[in-house]
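Ops channel
N.P.: pipeline sanity check, posting one input/output pair.
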């Protein structure tokens, strides 16, 4: 399996890990889905060794776990764990946004604006899966512009263990996200770090509120 968007220097384990993490993050592989080494070797065109190593790393990050008689399955996250993730995001992501507005280059600003425009277009077209991908690209482009590798690492780790599919299953949440992204972009393009951090915090808080059915153990579509 090849992908022109993936760095050419990745090892097979790194490639398998990236593909599986993205599928879990996007909701393509949902909680309880069984991950069989034989199937993955055929699908990814790899030997069992890098697949097993990728699954081991995913298990260390609690994205998957072992169940008796079933093997490795995609993990469910407890309400308490999701609440902890949101609490940490509320501290780290506004900080990264503030630093990004203060430090970003014109090229980084242009990239963020282009990604935002694509996000808006996907929203108008009602393309939820596309919005989810562009939402991730937009957030991570902002945090990269902060210039803090440590912040980026911590935030990426939080994103890797979060079930993003729930927000994008909600039509109203997608519409609200467009408005919230606009508010962040207004501050970003004005160079207002304080307003940008405030808008990002409000965006994450709104996401947390939309997730409350999941945090209470119910489907968001119930």
């Amino acid at each position: 399996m090849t992908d022109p968007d993936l760095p050419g220097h990745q090892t097979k384990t790194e490639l398998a890990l990236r593909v599986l993490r993205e599928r879990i993050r996007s909701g393509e592989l949902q909680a309880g889905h069984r991950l069989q080494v034989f199937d993955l070797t055929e699908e990814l065109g790899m030997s069992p060794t890098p697949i097993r190593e990728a699954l081991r790393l995913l298990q260390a990050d609690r994205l998957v776990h072992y169940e008796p008689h079933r093997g490795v399955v995609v993990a469910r996250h407890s309400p308490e764990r999701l609440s902890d993730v949101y609490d940490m995001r509320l501290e780290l992501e506004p900080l990264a946004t503030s630093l990004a507005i203060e430090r970003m280059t014109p090229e980084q600003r242009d990239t963020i604006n282009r990604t935002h425009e694509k996000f808006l277009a996907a929203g108008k077209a009602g393309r939820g899966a596309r919005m989810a991908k562009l939402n991730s690209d937009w957030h991570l482009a902002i945090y990269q512009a902060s210039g803090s590798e440590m912040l980026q690492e911590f935030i990426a780790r939080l994103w890797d263990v979060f079930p993003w599919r729930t927000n994008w299953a909600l039509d109203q949440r997608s519409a609200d996200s467009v408005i919230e992204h606009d508010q962040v972009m207004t501050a970003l393009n004005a160079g207002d770090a304080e307003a940008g951090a405030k808008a990002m915090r409000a965006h994450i808080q709104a996401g947390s509120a939309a997730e409350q059915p999941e945090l209470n153990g119910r489907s968001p579509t119930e």
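N.P.: looks fine end to end. The beta strands are 64-67, 71-74.
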